[in-house]
């Protein structure tokens, strides 16, 4: 049997600032048969996306394919001319990007972009292309398949865009489709729909797929075989079943282990009812836009939420994107002053706006943002980033400050040598640790963690959660943990609040093995992928119907 | 933006990547800076001395760059002109960019009424053509070097403001600014430590272009009577006063034109090709 | 001329001209010149020049275009307000005066048929008859009375109100006779009336934008600061100008003006920079018309302020000014060395016996030392506003530097110079336009109460002599008085007049009939009606 | 989704109006602060105290500045720009022809410059890093480094004096045919093209390069699109806002900044008119010209802002 894709001895190099070329893919061999789905799995920086892109004959700026062959449908993408490669892109090999929101041109209609492949390669007349596109929209179970193409990318949701990106890839009838982390940015409930749609369409057309992901559970639902990558080298290749049940390589084992986070390890709540709550919120409302005649903002994102956090305990807030959980965090932190309700912190009423809060109140309540990339000033060294709150809150300077910076780096398990680096030189996990260390530098009583693990790989995220737990034991902190990822929240929180459309629908205490009651909570909890390869096929919920309800 | 091939890299030993174009530009700028600094020691004649009975004289031994419209030594005049062109333009561009960038960042950080008022005022200022503004200033307060520098600065503040404000607004949306804000940081820290380092690159590139405009406007203003006092003259004024020699291809008009071109082009190429610290991720 | 063969001289040019006048045809001349060893292109050049010289018969027709050097929205067709050369040129084209000056500086009759007086105090002016304005109205004494009386009305803002003030009574004796009575005797009235401001306009005119006069051209369009176009007046009493139309505008940029001439866009570029002469000289088909009238740029030291109160300083400065070098470097030879007094060699009253001060830095140095000012920094205000003043300042400054006298030359904008610095700064430059008589110059510039007494020169003796000369009708006697007064100015006043500046107009050789005039360049601004264009 | 475009555009227009108001204040009071007495300057070398006082009264110069400002603003609203001090003509008459000339020159220059500059800028971005790109970039800086009076004079010397192809002066009334138009406008337009296009080239290049680095352009590449398609279909529409801004800034120069070109080609435009006004202290004229420049600038900038708003479908 001749394979559709044959990769032999593939190496890719990247240039460094000093102009040296270093190998980032170190000799990869892989065959993919027609209709087969192979998943590339590994942490970020493992080279999985780079490897997938070579199938298109493409290396990102600053990179080059330096050796080996990548035969796709008989053509060696490495040696073809740029023009010949362009002729195969979209028709033989197609690509579904990680973030469809960024990959759609904001200035053109969706339909124009979906059928662009047919225009570029003159595959069919525009009318026919449009009919085909609508059929694909329908097959991918997109709402309003006839009208959605006339909209602009910003007018449809992320999950829909991800499916539209798939339609864009499929319209040229490719033999191979590369899915580059297509569901990573989506809510779990949306992820289920998208995965189902992908699986159905590719199976029906017998398309060979490369599925790039760091999420083993997702991969388990969709792939036939798994290739595990680390540092540009293949660690292990095998069928899904083999990898899940008989992993041989240590890294694979680590990956699997990260999937069963240690929910224990936390003592039962040190229930001291006599102490007043650290944070208490009563009927808080907040939103965006200019105030209306009724005194409320134009868009009300949080509607009368009340909650309590006791000293030394953690509160989890879960919900899908747009449910108001981040807005809630921002109004607690005073970034977005609430329009109604009151916040009690450490026994005192807090001003709604951070500007009016006292120095001490600001210090005691820290917030850590989701994206360490934007939360760390790229122009400053780690030392400066960590040193500033020390100087600002505690007046530390010179030697004393240096000592404390080192202590903080130790605390978050980072080598001290990193202090002179800049954020761009760190990995995602390292950045998030720095981000967290900065909050610790203030020596706060409460830290608001806004989706701090969402952008991280499973293994890294698990490590961060472990770190948080450890620090809590040492420092007696409290966390408010905001996430859409149930496993993370379950791992660390004493109490979980489920938010839906700006309101709390349910409070769950994991230690009590309590099951969700509210239908939305049920959906949310059941949408979290399981490592079981049959999970997706046997799941009997209909997310779309649920959302309409 | 720069995708020069790695062959242009000269030295990696210093830990900085140095570009050949940048190096050459640096030496040209350095050359003019030294000329400006040591003008009195290297000029063969005094700047006002008439040494040639002819005018627009050709290059010849003793008068290496020919003579100007009054028969003065062009070499000496260009050497002294460097002082004014380099000095005034540098001072003006620094003041303009400093003021503009600080105001721009302040507006971006404070938003609201401050932004509104400053933006409108500077927009209004920007809408008055620069040469006419210069003319009005001369008419109102007369001409001297401080007035000249200040006028040139004022003219270019709105441009620097617009530019830096647009950049700063983008930076201001980043979470790290928000973190600093809810830490309780005040304006000077926010603009100086959080925003400025992140817009410095584009601001410098903009400064280079503005430098060119200031050098040119300086020559335009000398045309309106606002300029360096004779017998001294900046390069633009030298071109202007000797423009009559253009039909004869007199060195008196060509040399200062070339001087302007070499300086302005080098400043820009230098900024575009500043040495970059090598951050080698593979080394970690 | 650089393009002619070395052996070819002006005398040879005149030989060819003579041959043509005698009736030689082109073939004869070719033979003659080829025999003399000339190449064909060179011959063409010589023949062209000779032919041009010979064709001095006026030709009718053509559209004349000329460019002056300054114009603005303040341009006016009101003669009383005329202040720039551009205004004078237009006024000369559209209006007439009672008198005008010929090239020797002698007043000739224009609209006046005769001007008579017995005591130089009461003057009777007989007007020409049969002169009509452009709108068809005939010229009468009332028009003249109106035109002259306007200058006395402060609301008009006449530029010559001061001079006109001496006309205490102006009345029409009959339809064609005007009688003017002066406050005091003044023999120069016919010359005064030749000034451009005293152009005759129609009685009762308030709107001057039409340029309704008796002149050679009828105003077709006038846009202040842009241009004006006049067309031939078919009823012109002098018998009409040669050209069909006359367009005048200003090109303020020196090089642009010369380039416009060289590219054939205009026929005359007025007052070109001396340095541009080389460019025009080097081109075939163009020539220069040089007029040395009384225009001068002078260095003024106010005698009533430091450092001018120290006589030694003033004298020292007079020895420090290198007049020869100013003529050579700053004026490029287009000027004559001046002797520190305002009456130029173009005037019959010029005192040629008064020698210019020599350039003597050592003497200057000792005088400065005596004044106690050697080594001190003396500010000298200069500006582009006074022509060549900056270059002159450079020459004096360089000379001062040699002997250790530091002159701090301050260039100020030309805009506003005349109201802010001139007459005000202790040491500054001025620029004086030609005036037709010594009396006007003296009463304007040197009399104790003169409005523009640049150095604040005060001398009762001088004032008395001025009045005496004004009333003196005998030419010899006046000349004697004026000679003495010129010596007084040169020795006593603080005005250093290093040179009389030539006005150089560049013209295409197609333009004929242009001659110098003591009232200024472009034939005293009146060239349009006298010149003609050859094909 | 409700369209935000009308309210955004209205906002831009309001901002422009506010700026214009500030400008009118600034212009009026700045000009009245010019030293030198108008009456004295008008009378020139023959100003006597009586004559000056007479003229001042005749021109209402003796009234307080605030009152004159109100008169002036009132006049502006009725389209009356006042009467020129220098020659008693209505300023409207003085300006009308000059403004038309300025607009003609600006319009023609725009027609030449904008397509040229954008083509160069965009193609340089398209082939960035290549020899072509580097030549364009360096030539651009080189061109801006030459003073415009040198460019203009050189053009006259070459094309008018030596080659005699074109007239040295631009006589606007000689435009009676297309070739006449070319002859009259060729040199000023060429000179101005050099002056204003450099900035546009740089800015459009930078704006396109910025968008070329986005994921959707990479996506287009992975769909098999050619370079021109990536740039023209994907990068350019999203770079329209900054490009429009750069074009507007450059073009605003053409309204009031062309003194030198007007002087050298003797082109009767509005910039020279204002210079005249300053030297004769003709306040109504200066104020009117300044207002026209500011109005032109604001018009262009506001148009650019509106283009940016309209080109952004997220706001539609």
Could you walk me through the main structural features you see in this protein, from its secondary elements to its overall organization?
Chain D: One of its GO terms (cellular component) is plasma membrane. Chain D: Belongs to the binding-protein-dependent transport system permease family. Chain D: The chain crosses the membrane at residues 12-34, 105-127, 139-162, 182-201, 239-265, 285-310. The complex is a heterotetramer of chains A (549), B (284), C (535) and D (316). Chain A contains 22 helices and 20 strands. Chain A is α/β, with parallel strands linked by helices. In chain A, helix 7 packs parallel to helix 8 (188-205) and helix 15 packs parallel to helix 17. The radius of gyration of chain A is 25 Å and the shape is globular. Chain B is 67% helix and 1% strand. Chain B has ten helices and two strands, in the order E-H-H-H-H-H-H-H-H-H-H-E. In chain B, strands 1-2 form a two-stranded antiparallel ribbon. Chain B is elongated, with a radius of gyration of 22 Å. By secondary structure, chain C is of the alpha+beta class. Chain C folds into four domains: 10-56, no CATH class; 96-200, Dipeptide-binding Protein, domain 1; 217-285 and 509-533, D-Maltodextrin-Binding Protein, domain 2 (3-Layer(aba) Sandwich), CATH 3.40.190.10; 292-502, Roll (Dipeptide-binding Protein, domain 3). Chain C is 31% helix and 21% strand. Chain C has helices at 10-21, 26-35, 40-54, 85-94, 141-149, 161-164, 189-192, 254-262, 277-281, 311-320, 323-330, 361-371, 389-403, 417-420, 438-445, 460-471, 475-492, 521-524, and strands at residues 63-68, 99-101, 107-109, 112-117, 122-127, 167-174, 177-182, 217-223, 227-232, 245-250, 268-269, 286-301, 335-337, 377-383, 406-412, 427-432, 495-496, 499-508, 511-512, 532-533. In chain C, a hairpin with a 2-residue loop joins strand 6 and strand 7. Chain D has a domain at 91-311: MetI-like fold. In chain D, helix 1 (5-32) runs antiparallel to helix 13, helix 5 (91-126) packs antiparallel against helix 6 and helix 6 crosses helix 8 (178-212). Chain D starts with a helix and ends in a 6-residue tail after the last helix. The chains are: A alpha/beta (549), B mainly alpha (284), C alpha+beta (535), D mainly alpha (316). Chains B and D meet through helix 4, helix 5, helix 8, helix 9 and helix 10 of B and helix 1, helix 6, helix 7, helix 8 and helix 10 of D.
In short:
With 284 residues, chain B is mainly alpha-helical. Helices cover 67% and strands 1% of the residues of chain B.
